[in-house]
User: Which sequence fits this backbone?
C-alpha cells in the first residue's frame, strides 16, 4: 500500500472525534438552549398539533424557521387555537431548541416559543421604522428620485392585482389625460407572503423591456398588515436599484409603506399615479401646439407682408414723382404747342385779311384804271406785301415779341409792362419775363 | 461651430418631446420680442414648424386610445420560436 493513500478508516486531518452522536446531540441541545432568547415576527404557515404541542413555520419573504409551542404555553398566552392559523401575523418569544430524538424518534431543530401574540400595528410600525432608518442611511431613498421621468412616455408598465378598482381607476386616469399609449400589465398578488417576491419579479421584468419608460405599482387601501408586502426589504431594495422610474400608489393617503420612500414618486390614488406616470396633459398640449402653429404662421406672414408693403411704398415714390414731373412737362408742351398754333393761325388770319384788303384795293384800281398798269402795280404790291410777312422777317433772324395772348408788343415799354412775353423765332417760341426796360 | 453647422444642428430631430417644447418656447419668445431680422424670423419660423410637426407626431402616437398588453403574453412571444 502506498503511504500517500488514505485508508477508508482514516479521518481527515485536523477534525476531532469521532464522538458518540448521542452525546454530541445532547451537547448541541444544551448549546442551542443557551442562545439568547428573542422575539420573532412573521406569518404562520403549516400549523399542526399533537397532544402536547402545536407546531408551525414562521415565515416571511426571505426565510422561515420551524417553531413549536407547548399547548400549556399557548393557553397561558391567551391565544386560542383558532387564532394560531395559517396566514396569521404573530410575534413569538422564545429561543432555539434541539430535540435529540431517541431510539425511534427523529431529532429536529426548532424555535421553541414560550409566548405568542397576534402582531399588532405597533409591532409592524416598529419594524417599518427600523427598515426606513436602515435604507435611508444607505441612500436608497434618493436613487429613484434622481431618474429622469419622461414627459410623454409611449409605454408604461403597471404592477397590480388583476381584479380590483386600482386597475380600472388607473386606466380612467390615463384616458382623462388624453393619453393612449401602451400599458403593459404585470399582474401579481398584492397581499400575503407571496406578494413581495412576485411584485419584485414583475418590476424587474417590466424594467427589462426597452419600451417601458415608467412603471406604476398600485393597490387599494387596507391595514398596515394588509399592505405589509410593500414594506418588504428585498422588494424595496429592488425598486431603489431599478433604472426605470417607479410610481408608487399603494393604499390611501394616510397609508405609508416603505415602497413610497424608495419610489421616484409616491401617490395617494391611481388617478394621481396616472398624472405622475404621464406628466404631460395631452389634451391641453394639443391645444397649446395649435396655438404655437398659429403664432408661427402669423409671425412668418407678418414679417414678409410688413416688409413687402414697406418696400412697395418706397418703390412707388420715385415713380410717382417721376410721373408727376412727366405730366407737368407734357402739360407745358401742350400749352406751348397750343399757343404757338393759336399765334400762327391768328397771324395767318390777320395777314390774310391785310392781303385781301390790299388785293381788293389793287383790284379796284386795276378795274377802275388802266388794267395793265394796275396789274403791274398789283404784282409789285403783292411782292412788297410778301416781303413784309412776319415769317420772312423771322427767317432773317428777327424775333417777334408778343404778349401771352399773342398780341404783338411793338415797344420796349409795352414789353416791359407785360409780366410775361413770348419771343417767336422762325423755329419756335421762347417764353420770357422782362427784367427791366433800358431807354434807348 | 460656425453658423451653418449651428443652423443644421438646430434643425435636426429633437432628443425628446421636452427638448422640442423647450426650443419652441425659445423661438416664440424670440419672435415675440420683435428683435429678429427678416432672415432670422424666416429661419425660426421654419424650425418652429418642424418642431410643431415633431410634437404633433409624438402626440398622435399616444392619441389613438389605450393599448393594453400583458407581460406574460409578451414573454411567451419571446419564448415561442417563430414559425416560418
Assistant:
Amino acid at each position: 500500500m502506498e503511504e500517500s493513500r488514505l485508508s477508508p478508516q482514516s479521518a481527515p486531518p485536523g477534525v476531532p472525534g469521532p464522538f458518540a452522536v448521542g452525546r454530541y446531540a445532547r451537547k448541541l441541545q444544551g448549546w442551542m438552549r443557551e442562545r439568547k432568547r428573542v422575539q420573532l415576527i412573521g406569518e404562520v404557515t403549516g400549523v399542526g398539533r399533537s397532544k402536547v404541542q402545536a407546531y408551525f413555520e414562521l415565515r416571511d419573504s426571505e426565510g422561515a424557521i420551524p417553531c413549536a409551542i407547548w399547548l400549556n404555553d399557548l393557553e397561558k398566552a391567551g391565544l386560542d387555537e383558532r387564532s394560531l392559523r395559517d396566514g396569521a401575523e404573530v410575534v413569538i418569544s422564545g429561543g432555539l431548541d434541539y430535540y435529540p430524538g431517541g431510539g425511534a424518534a427523529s431529532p429536529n431543530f426548532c424555535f421553541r416559543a414560550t409566548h405568542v401574540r397576534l402582531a399588532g400595528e405597533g409591532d409592524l410600525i416598529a419594524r417599518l421604522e427600523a427598515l426606513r432608518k436602515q435604507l435611508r442611511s444607505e441612500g436608497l431613498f434618493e436613487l429613484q428620485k434622481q431618474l429622469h421621468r419622461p414627459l410623454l412616455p409611449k409605454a408604461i408598465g403597471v404592477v397590480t392585482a388583476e381584479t380590483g378598482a386600482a386597475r380600472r381607476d388607473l386606466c380612467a386616469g390615463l384616458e382623462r389625460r388624453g393619453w393612449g399609449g401602451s400599458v403593459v400589465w404585470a399582474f401579481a398578488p398584492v397581499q400575503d407572503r407571496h406578494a413581495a417576491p412576485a411584485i419584485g419579479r414583475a418590476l424587474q421584468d417590466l424594467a427589462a423591456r426597452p419600451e417601458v419608460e415608467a412603471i406604476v405599482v398600485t393597490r387599494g387601501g387596507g391595514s398596515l398588515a394588509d399592505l405589509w408586502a410593500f414594506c418588504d426589504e428585498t422588494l424595496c431594495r429592488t425598486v431603489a436599484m431599478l433604472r426605470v422610474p417607479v410610481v408608487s400608489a399603494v393604499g390611501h393617503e394616510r397609508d405609508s409603506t416603505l415602497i413610497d420612500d424608495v419610489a421616484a414618486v409616491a401617490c395617494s390614488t391611481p388617478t394621481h399615479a396616472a398624472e405622475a406616470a404621464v406628466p404631460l396633459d395631452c389634451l391641453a398640449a394639443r391645444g397649446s401646439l395649435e396655438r404655437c402653429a398659429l403664432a408661427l404662421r402669423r409671425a412668418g406672414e407678418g414679417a414678409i407682408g410688413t416688409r413687402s408693403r414697406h418696400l412697395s411704398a418706397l418703390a412707388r415714390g420715385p415713380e410717382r414723382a417721376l410721373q408727376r414731373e412727366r405730366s407737368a412737362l407734357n402739360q407745358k408742351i401742350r400749352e406751348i404747342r397750343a399757343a404757338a398754333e393759336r399765334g400762327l393761325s391768328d397771324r395767318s388770319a390777320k395777314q390774310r385779311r391785310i392781303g385781301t384788303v390790299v388785293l381788293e384795293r389793287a383790284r379796284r384800281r386795276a378795274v377802275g384804271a388802266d388794267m395793265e398798269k394796275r396789274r403791274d402795280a398789283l404784282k409789285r404790291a403783292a411782292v412788297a406785301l410778301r416781303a413784309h410777312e412776319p415769317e420772312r422777317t423771322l427767317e432773317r433772324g428777327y424775333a417777334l415779341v408778343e404778349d401771352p395772348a399773342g398780341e404783338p408788343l411793338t415797344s420796349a415799354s409795352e414789353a416791359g409792362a407785360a409780366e410775361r412775353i413770348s419771343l417767336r423765332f422762325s423755329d419756335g417760341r421762347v417764353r420770357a419775363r422782362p427784367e427791366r426796360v433800358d431807354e434807348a | 461651430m460656425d453658423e451653418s453647422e449651428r443652423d443644421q444642428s438646430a434643425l435636426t430631430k429633437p432628443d425628446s418631446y421636452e427638448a422640442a417644447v423647450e426650443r419652441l418656447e425659445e423661438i416664440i419668445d424670440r419672435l415675440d420680442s420683435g428683435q429678429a431680422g427678416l432672415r432670422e424670423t424666416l429661419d425660426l419660423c421654419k424650425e418652429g414648424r418642424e418642431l410643431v410637426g415633431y410634437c404633433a407626431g409624438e402626440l398622435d402616437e399616444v392619441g389613438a386610445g389605450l393599448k393594453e398588453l400583458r407581460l406574460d403574453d409578451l414573454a411567451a412571444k419571446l419564448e415561442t420560436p417563430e414559425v416560418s
